[in-house]
Design brief:
Keywords: Signal. Pfam families: SBP_bac_3. Belongs to the bacterial solute-binding protein 3 family. This protein is an alpha/beta fold. The chain folds into two domains: 143 residues, Periplasmic binding protein-like II (D-Maltodextrin-Binding Protein, domain 2), CATH 3.40.190; 94 residues, Periplasmic binding protein-like II (D-Maltodextrin-Binding Protein, domain 2, 3-Layer(aba) Sandwich). 42% of the residues lie in helices and 20% in strands. The chain contains eleven helices and 14 strands. The chain has a five-stranded mixed sheet. The longest helix is centred in the N-terminal third of the chain and has 22 residues. It starts with a helix and ends in a 10-residue tail after the last helix.
Length: 267
């Protein structure tokens, strides 16, 4: 074989390897690399996961995790704020690469999207009207037709209430803040919602609500992507493993869950 044929053959082989490598990352990672953006869907208003600050920017636990992910990818973090009831369709139509929105992993959602390993585990707790303090000590006590329970539409709070408090009167609201206000104003007996939000709301509204803080459900939260991309799932799981191992996760967690100095930033 001549030197020219050998060199040309090596060039062709390298080109094939390069082409193969360029498509092996999977469609989501390829699009992130090509666009130079990581587009992340969430529904701002879920303390302390994603919120809108007074200056109009988005802040929170999920926001910081998303920004760290984009930074390690070497791309721009692009927030995609969308209504909760449309967040999965928004993902599936390609308007964002992933959902990072405090989304509970469950079978119904898993039929439409793929979830990475849980990045945090929470559960439903109870915000109670003070007049019921001592009388109601668990969700079982609220399972009675004399009580009005509120929660946010389309959430695991709504699912848990329908499943475990079927005898109570249920009112659902577009936002968790509106639902909590019903309890604080004495128009509802209890809010069933995610423990982190309830804990923060109770701290901000002492005397207006009572927090029964022990969660009565087990709810792992996970990052969601469109189905069929094992490479993106592999990336997400390895990213989570890395930041939990090097202390980055703990620093972000402590900032949002063990310190309330950020409250002055949000609306």
């Amino acid at each position: 074989m001549s030197v020219r044929k050998f060199v040309n053959g090596m060039v062709a082989t390298c080109a094939l390897i390069s082409a193969s490598a360029s498509v092996s990352a999977g469609p989501i990672l390829d699009d992130i690399a090509k666009s130079g953006e990581l587009r992340v869907c969430f529904d701002a208003g879920y303390m302390p996961f994603e919120m809108k600050s007074k200056n109009g920017s988005y802040v929170g636990f999920d926001i910081d995790l998303g920004k760290m992910m984009a930074r390690q990818m070497g791309v721009k973090y692009v927030p995609v704020n969308t209504a909760w009831d449309g967040i999965i369709p928004t993902l599936l139509t390609g308007k964002c690469h992933m959902i990072n929105a405090g989304m509970t992993i469950n079978a119904q959602r898993n039929m439409r999207v793929n979830f990475a390993d849980p990045y945090i585990v929470i559960g439903q707790s109870i915000l109670l009207n003070p007049k019921l303090e001592g009388k109601v000590t668990s969700y079982k006590d609220l399972n009675n037709g004399q009580y009005t329970v509120v929660t946010k539409l389309g959430t695991t709070g709504e699912q848990a209430t329908k499943r475990m408090l079927s005898k109570a009167k249920l009112n659902v609201f577009e936002t968790q803040a509106d639902a909590a206000l019903e309890v604080a104003n004495g128009k509802a007996d209890a809010l069933i919602y995610d423990m982190p939000f309830n804990a923060i709301y109770a701290a901000q509204n002492k005397g207006k609500v009572v927090h029964l803080e022990q969660p009565f459900t087990y709810e792992p939260l996970g990052w969601a992507i469109a189905q069929g991309d094992s490479d993106m799932l592999n990336f997400l799981n390895n990213f989570l493993r890395q930041i939990k191992g090097d202390g980055t996760y703990d620093r972000i967690y402590d900032k949002w869950f063990k310190d309330d100095s950020w409250l002055s930033q949000v609306q």
